[in-house]
Amino acid sequence: MKVAERVAIVTGGGGGIGGALAAALARAGAKVVVADLDADAARTVADQINAETPGAAVGSGGDVSDSEVIRALIALAERHYGPVDMYFANAGITGAPGLDATEGDWDQAIDINLRAHIRAAQLLVPGWVQRGEGYFVSTASAAGLLTQLGGAAYAVTKHAAVGFAEWLNITYGDQGVRVSCLCPMGVNTKLLFAGAQSGDPTGDLATRAVTTAGEVLEPAAVADEVLAAVDDERFLILPHAAVLEMYRHKATDYDRWLRGMRRYQRALLNPEVS
Fold first, then answer.
1. Which of 65, 74, 167, 183 is the most exposed, having the fewest neighbouring CB atoms within 10 Å of its CB?
2. Which pairing describes strands 134-139 and 7-10: parallel, antiparallel, or unpaired?
3. Quick check: helix, strand or coil at residue 136?
4. Whole-angstrom Cα distance, residue 274 to residue 270?
5. Which CATH number fits domain 7-243: 3.30.565.10, 3.40.50.720, 3.30.2350.10, 1.10.510.10?
6. Does the active-site annotation cover 154?
7. Catalytic residue among 81, 87, 135, 154
C-alpha cells in the first residue's frame, strides 16, 4: 500500500519508534494522528511534523488500551482528515520482569501489548472489509519470535501480539485488509533501557540481553524499514536481519536453542565465569 494521501493513527507516537513512524509517514504524504499516553509528548511530535509539513499531523493523549480512547482517536482522524486507512499499534510496555509480577502487572502488560491491538482491530477491520482495503501494523518484538531473557510478561505478550497479527492476516487478507508485524531487537528508545534503570536485577538482565545480542538501531532506521515493508505489503518486518536466522535455529532444533539461551543467560548473569 502506498502511504501518500492515506490517513494513519500511530499509537505510542510521543517518541521512539512511534514518533519516528509518524514523522516518516508525514514525509511520505500521509496525514497522521499521533497518540500517546503522554499528551504533551504526542502534541510535541505533531508540532515538529507540522513545522516541516503544515497540517500533516495532530496529537492526542490517552490510554490506547481503552476502546473508548481508540474510538475517539478514530473520530479525531475523521474530523481532521477523513476515514482511517492505516493503524500502527505501536504502544507498548516492558511489564514486570518475573514470577513476582502481580495479577495487576500481568493485566496491564496484556492490555497494552495485546488487547490494545485487538480492540483497535475490532473497531477498524469491519469498516475496512466493507471498503475493501485497510492496513494494520502491529509492533511486537523479536521477543515475540524468540523470547526475552528476564522479561516474562514482555515475552509472553509479544508472542501473543505476533499470533494476533498472523490471525488477522490470514482471516482478512483476502478481503483487502493488509497486516504487518514489526519484530525488532534493540532500538534506541526509553523502553529499551527501562529495565536497566529500574534497579531490578531481572529487568537489567533484559536490557543487557538485548543490547549485547546485536546492533541497537535508531528509531528512524526502523521507521524506514516499516514503510518499505508496507509498500511491499510484507507481513514480517525484521530491521535486524539476524533475527530471521535465530528464528530458523529455534525452529530447527528447539531443545538446542533453549540450551543456547540458558548458556547466554548464564554468561550475562556471571560474566566472570564465562
1. 167
2. unpaired
3. strand
4. 7
5. 3.40.50.720
6. yes
7. 154
Would you list the domain boundaries of the chain?
7-243
Please report, for residues 30, 56, 158, 174, 177, the alpha-carbon distance to residue 168 in angstroms, rounded to integers and kept in the order given.
23, 29, 15, 11, 8
User: Three-class SS of residue 97?
Assistant: coil
Neighbours of 78 (CB within 10 A): 13
Beta strand residue intervals within 80-157, DSSP E = 86-89, 134-139
Give the integer Cα–Cα distance in Å for 165 and 90: 13
pLDDT digits 0-9 by tens, 188-205: 998 887 755 555 666 688
Query: Do residues 21 and 10 lie in contact, with contact meaning Cβ atoms separated by under 8 Å?
Result: yes
Residues lower than pLDDT 50 in the chain: 274
Q: Quote the pLDDT of residue 85.
A: 98
pLDDT digits (tens, 9 = 90+) for 78-90: 999 999 999 999 9
| pLDDT of the residue at 197 | 56
Q: Which three cell numbers stand for residue 75?
A: 473520530
pLDDT > 90: what percent of the chain? 87
Contact 61, 38 (CB under 8 A): yes
> What pLDDT score was predicted for residue 212?
86
User: Cell match 511491499: residue?
Assistant: 232
Query: How much is the pTM?
Result: 0.94
Question: CB–CB of 137/180 below 8 Å?
Answer: yes
